[in-house]
Fold:
Amino acid sequence: MSPTTAIPSYREQSPEVAARFERLRQREVTLEVRRLGKVFDSSRGRVTALEDVSFSVHHREFTCVIGPSGCGKSTLVRILAGLETKTSGEVLVNGESVSGPGPDRGMVFQGYTLFPWLSVKQNVMFGLRMSRHSEFAAEREAREWIALVGLSKFENAYPHQLSGGMKQRVAIARALANQPRVLFMDEPFGALDAQTRGQMQSYLLDIWKNVDITIVFITHDLDEAVFLSDRILVLDANPGRFREMVEVPVPRPRSMEQMFDPTFLAARKHIESLIHPPAKDGGESREAPVMRLAKPDPDVV
Amino acid sequence: MAAPSILSGWFRVRQDLGHHRRLLLTLLSFLFPLVLWCVVSYVPWIWHPDVKIEVAAEREDVTTVFTAGDHVSKEYFPTYQEAVREENRGVLAAREAGESEGGFKRKNQKLLRQLAPVLIENGWLPYEEAQNDEAIYHLWRDLAAGTKVAESPELSDENLEIVRRNWEVMSALSPDFSFRQLPDTRLLKLVPQGKPANPAYLPAPGEVIKTGWRDFTATPANEAATMKERYLESLGVIFRGFLWACVIGVPIGILCGTYDVFARLFEPFTDFFRYMPAPTFSTLLVAVLAADDAPKIALVFIGTLPHMVLMIAKTTRLLDPALLEAAQTLGANSRQMVTRVVIPGILPNLYNDLRILLGWAWTWLVIAELIGVKSGLTEFIETQGRFRNFDRVFPIIILIGVTGFVTDQVLAWLHGLLFPWEGKSGRMSRAVAAVVTWPARIVAEGARERVASAEAEREARAKLTKAEAS
Ligand SMILES: Nc1ncnc2c1ncn2[C@@H]1O[C@H](COP(=O)(O)OP(=O)(O)OP(=O)(O)O)[C@@H](O)[C@H]1O
Ligand SMILES: [Mg+2]
Structure:
């Protein structure tokens, strides 16, 4: 009965899934990263955050980036968004090399970063106003995006009046209102509780379905990565290197029930083994590092 | 037991008290010093090392002259009284002996005025008429006859007796005042009278209120400025000095906080400059800007500016850089980052910085008013302080304090109104904001609707022409 006994290989794809990946590969490449490298020159010495990372993302693909903490995920996405300079390599969006930040690449941060002095509507209008939309046109468009994330009732509220999940929805609407080609999301749901996070994930998939957008999503949560993405980019730590691009064999459309499908578990297990390699001596036999402060109890093991 | 006691829950680490308790404590924080002041001033056996003279007497051959309102030590006062009594005994002895040494008209005129402070305090003589001898003469009569009885302060029996005796001598010569008709021989001096008092530098609250009221309402003689004029003059200096500092300091501060170029260019020198105390420039300022108010305004300006630049630069740097990154990913260029993110983002903190700086500016004002030609409230403090009239100094100090405090409270309250997104505005300030901004909102709403309909119309027309073309 235990599902662990029946886990197939993560490479096994049902014919439909395989066909879908084939079709995805045929699509134009929206984002291409070639031999990207990043070295931080800080006063405490040089830190190589990224080394020789290459991958490409196709149009309207949902890609997650996962890796151990400190492996350079944030650095990678900040370079892609243009907020950080790269040391070497190349980043192409729709074939054009990018250097600085621009409205063609949206970004959603873990810390919401809404402008506290603007109402929800004005926050969403921000990017539109920057690009010389008239106030009227910006407002009308902003309303549509706010409706898309289901916050019409709160369009005049200030950010401090919203919950974390609502704030992140506003941040998503704000990024999407600019109609970027790629949307980068750096652990956007990291600060939310498990319940809200699950809702937000389904929400995000809905939005992705209805909006012409390519998403690169950073997370350290395995379930989140497998649930959301078409392919998962796994990075190695110290320095951050390309480890593997995993195609997720879970069919679409996704739902929470799939969390216990063999395909889901297969992908999850494989990625887990990539991120936390099993210990060489078998793993389980390690001595308890905790001092024994109570008598051994056979029922408490 | 279960009911929440009013005594419990006052001491909880880092927990706010309830609204009522906070209000109560706020009141207490003002009441406590006031009560302490009253107790020290009005409970006679606490402290009171001095005697405040109510009736003063000049002594023969003694150069130290006391006047009513002066303080002498408790130990010395009986000696003083005894000396005057001794003189009186001499006068009586001479009178008994029939000696009639003349030439005392002038001294007797002065002696009559001994009573003036008592008459003023009892409300029979206006403050400005302390030397109106006709009126004083008649009041001597009334007191001697008993038609008027001094109540606060009272006249001691000893002094009442002296009043009667003197009046006997005076009335024999003339019923009304005339210098020529004053007795030529010595009259009796009123024996000094006084009440226990604290040192002059701690006047009682009642005295402070009384003298304060008098100074604030009086029209001073010889064209000197009234208190209102002085107050407005001080406010004018601080306001103009601070405004100039804002005009220069706020933009520089924001530039320093935003661009490293300006920070490196301005901040090191500003940092150095602020260690040179502004008052040290006062003589220089007076020499350069001779005109009356200019050096004073300049001093407030110089005192405020360096702190303002550094403080605002720091506030600007504290703005969450993630907001700037977010704006960049939304397509803001660097000008828009400053105007649309930095400035609105720091505004609430900048406003609070200015509030703090305005508080400091009062310090500079006090110094500024002492340079060149002394002016404003400080000149009054300085003059009266030199005469040890501290009961006239305190009202001014309190006035400055109240002005600063009230301004700050009003500005703090406005903070909630001006920056509703901070979420600190109370229900009251929100209601006021709603009322105040109502006309503006109506106008804006109307304008938006007009624009919207115009745009909609244009779009419809564009569609129509496109349809016609195809
Ligand atoms: N500004 C910086 N200066 C110097 N080193 C930096 C800087 N930013 C990041 N690093 C280093 O680069 C490496 C990657 O950091 P990064 O924040 O990209 O990791 P991450 O994968 O996002 O980690 P996490 O999962 O904790 O968010 C780390 O070793 C970090 O110390
Ligand atoms: Mg990170």
Notes: The beta strands of chain B are 50-55, 71-73, 193-197. Residues A 73-74 surround magnesium ion (ligand 2) (CB under 6 Å). Residues 227-449 of chain B form a domain with the MetI-like fold fold (CATH 1.10.3720.10).
